[in-house]
Structure formats: C-alpha cells, structure tokens
Amino acid sequence: MDKLRPLLIGLFAPFWFFAPFALLGWLPFYIFRTFVKLLAHWLRPDLISMLAPKDAFFSSDRIHTCTRNSLVVSIELKGQIDPNHIRKLLNTKILQSRDQNGNLLYPEIGWSMRHWLGFPFWSQASLIEDNVRVSSEDVDLKQLQAQLAVQEYRENAPLWELVLHTNCVLLRWHHSLSDGYGMLLLHEELRTLGTAKKLRPVVPSRKSIGTSFLPYLALPYDLIKLFVELLLTEWFPLDKKSWTKFNAKSSPLETSARLCSHTSEAIPFSVIRKLGVKFGVNGTAVLHSAILGGLRTFFLANGRNIPSSVAVETPIPESVERKRRLGNNVTLRCYSAPLGSLDAQTRLRLVHSGILSMKRSTFPLAMTLAVAALGHLPRTLLRFTFAANDKRQRIFISNLAGFEEATDFCGHQVENISMAAGIYVGNAGIGITLISSGGELRVTVLADRNILHDDLCALRVTENFMAELDLLRAACPDGNKDDTFTI
Hints:
- Keywords: Membrane, Transmembrane, Transmembrane helix.
- The chain is α+β, with helices and mostly antiparallel strands.
- It folds into two domains: 37-189, Chloramphenicol Acetyltransferase (2-Layer Sandwich), CATH 3.30.559; 207-475, Chloramphenicol Acetyltransferase.
- It is built from 15 helices and 16 strands.
- The chain has helices at 5-12, 19-43, 53-56, 83-95, 141-150, 180-189, 214-217, 219-231, 252-256, 269-279, 283-301, 344-360, 363-374, 379-390, 455-475, and strands at 47-50, 70-77, 111-116, 119-124, 132-134, 160-165, 168-174, 259-263, 267-268, 310-317, 330-337, 395-401, 408-409, 412-421, 430-437, 440-448.
- Strands 8, 9, 10, 11, 12, 15 and 16 form a seven-stranded mixed beta sheet that branches. A six-stranded mixed beta sheet has the order 5-6-7-2-14-13.
- A hairpin with a 2-residue loop joins strand 15 and strand 16 (440-448).
- The longest helix is centred in the first third of the chain and has 25 residues, at 19-43.
C-alpha cells in the first residue's frame, strides 16, 4: 500500500475541487463572527477580546452551572504543605511575572469568560480572590478530583484554581484557558529546587506542512482512507440494560458521580523503552498495544463480545510553533486499532503498523482546520457538535509528558500525579491518560459509568494493562526478567 500511496494521492486529488464549496458554506459564519467582534469593539469596551477559534471550541459547556470541559491534575507532594508559601511563589512567578517590555506573561490567568451574542469573550475578572484554597470537604482525593472536574466557575472569576487537600495540590482549569502542555509550563515556573531539566520545547509534528504542497495534496486520500477504516470499526460491547441517560442539566454532584477513574502505580519508563527495542517497535506502540490488551481482557472477563477493531484518537502538537504560553495548540491523530487480536505480539505489530500509518497521514492538518472552523460557530451550534461527539465510541489516549527527572512543586518533591477530566461524563468513549514524570509512567483510566460501571472496573483495566506488559516481557527474545509490574 505504501508503494501505491503516490498513485492513490493523485487519484483522489480531484476531490480538492469540493474545497471551494466547503469554504462557501463556512464563510457566512466567519463573516457573522467578525461582525460580532467589531460590534463588541464599539459597544462593549469591558470585553478584552474574542477567544481564538481553537480556545472558543471548548467554550460551549455550562461553565457557570456545571462545566464538562475542565481538567484537573492532582500532584501529591512530600512533606507538609505551606499554603502561604505557595501563594507567594504563585504571585511572583505567575500572576505578576512580566516580559522585557513589562507585559504580563500570563494575562489570561486574571481573565474571566463572558458570552455575548453567542460568542465567548475574555473579560477582566472582577472577583480576584484567593485562588489557592484549602479544601475543607471530607472526601477522598478521587472524589474531590471528580467534583472539581465538573464544578462550576463563578461568574466574573478566573477560569482556574489551586486546591490544597492534605498533602496534595489539585490544579483545575478550563480547557478554553489552556491545553495540558501550557499548564506544564506553569508547573515549570513553580519549581524551586532545580532538580529537573527544563521542559523540552514541543516540536511540530510535521514541519513540512507549512512549506510543502505535497501534504495538502494528500489530504483527500488520507481523509477518505481513514473514514472508511473507521466505518469498519465496531462498537464497544456495552451492557445497554444498565444504561442511564445523562441529563445535561444535572447538578455538579450528580454529574461527578458518573465519572469512573483509576490511576495505576508508577512504571519505570525504561521498561517501556526496553520492550520497544526488543520487539523493534516504538514505545508508543508498546503502550497502545498494552492498553488495547487490557481493555480486551476486561471485556472478556465481563462476558462481552470483542469487536475486531476500535477507533483510537490521540492529541499531538500542531505543526506550527507555539506563540502563546497558554492557549490550545494541539490537534488529533487517529487510527483503527486491533482490539480483536488474540496474541499480544500480533497485536503489538499491528498497532505499530497503524501508528506508523497514522504518523504519515495528513489527518492532523484536517483536524486543525476543522477545529478552527468549528471555533467560528456560535455557542448553540457548538453544543450540537459536542453532543454528537459524546455518542462516538473510541479510545482517547492522551500523553501528559512531564519532566524526565524527579521534580518538585514549590519546593516540595513530587511523589505522584493523577488526572481527571469532565468531558468523559456522558461520553461513549474511554479516556486513557499517560502521565510521565521523573522517569516514571502512570496510566489513568477515565469513563462514564455507562462504559465502566464503577472505579473498580477502571482498576481492573489498569491491572490488565500491567498483565499485558508482563506478557510482552515474557515473550521478549532474551527478555529482562528483572523488570516487574505491580499495581
């Protein structure tokens, strides 16, 4: 198929003739959005600016009643936490940090969001109170994570907060404010021990896209090929008898109760690299294959039929340099993954092949254009987009790649990291977050209770993930028997 790719690209290139019609369909929304933007400039001086399309894409949820587009990262620290020390560092290194021209490095930190004529705008937050609060709720960490992932933001207040809970710091922010990498940059600013190197800059995934016409030419073929593959994927084996319909107007407490999650214990990342070298594949293939194997074993153990293939999506950096420290600057890759493969090694080879094909595809470019186009829509239409996305069954694997060495947060050594996201509430997909820090990897499983009925099910998936790694290790040529995997 690779040898035929240039020929197939040429055969599908005439589909570019439909591009002008798509542009004409999008143009009225662009004109209306621009008109509202100009109108706000004249009539609403209290509004700072309209959100960029890639940030506005995440702004359609009920942000002031029960949000679903929040992300929560929990950082467990060693030693007793001093709230005043954290407040001081946060103020000097983030809130008041300025560039050489005297401009704030992170102005969005002090902004709130308002909707006007259907579009989101940044406005100066008037409720500038202490955004570092000590949790007084008598709940465990996992419950607090779930509650924060859907908890509303106060009107005219910033779209982030730090919550201190025993020896843990929970950083919560709305996705319109930033993606995960932007928040890692904030974490980098709050390190004081100097025990870890600086974060490596995110290298664009396809540098040639901006200078070569060939990737654009391949877009129609890559899109049609991927859509055909995804049409052949099957649905997860769900137990529809116990299915409960999600009410979008539910309270935050009811909504958070739907979120099932579990984070594994740490795995030395060197183990993943060794397995990749032994089998001649990359580390991403090892992780994806083990995730698929873990889900397959879970479904089989619960007496469900196994689909032969499922859709896997994974976010990557866009193919342009990051101009802002915060904001959203990611796109998506997607491929059809073999869930029905019986043998772990066969599944690993098929996953590796799928990932290589995914990396050659121009689908991320299409997703960049699609998100930018959808970000021009008014709030009501965006909600229809997210409602349709909730019904899509796929595995969403995100990678929160942190510092390679052991690191700290405000002078406290980081011992554990976990994550929660409200987007999986009422969603038909399964979320897998790979969190790497200090040379270790942790796997977080997230899903609505319709998919994984409770936290125990999420725990079983992580246990099966570890068992799948053990199978690969045992099957390694000259396998390293010293490496162990434990929950």
